[in-house]
Amino acid sequence: MSYKATIKILGREYKSTGDSVAECLEGLKPGFCKSKSVLTIEKGEEKKEKILGLIPTSRLFSNSPAVREINIKQIAQLFDF
What we know:
It is built from three helices and four strands; from the N terminus they run ββαββαα. By secondary structure, it is α+β, with helices and mostly antiparallel strands. The protein has a four-stranded antiparallel beta sheet. A hairpin with a 2-residue loop joins strand 1 (3-9) and strand 2 (12-18). The protein starts with a strand and ends with a helix.
């Protein structure tokens, strides 16, 4: 079953889909941002929403592949379906 990710940052909404939570997070590409965000992951009828602070949001979209990969794994663990 596929997952859908939506992140809201400063009034803008970015969407992505994938076969896993990590794939969805990798597909989100808002560019560089330093702000809080609201991340929503959907799987079928089930929907979970988390508020991410400044540091997790900026690391999620970091230019460093290592930092980005580590943060994607950490955030994916918050969403257990």
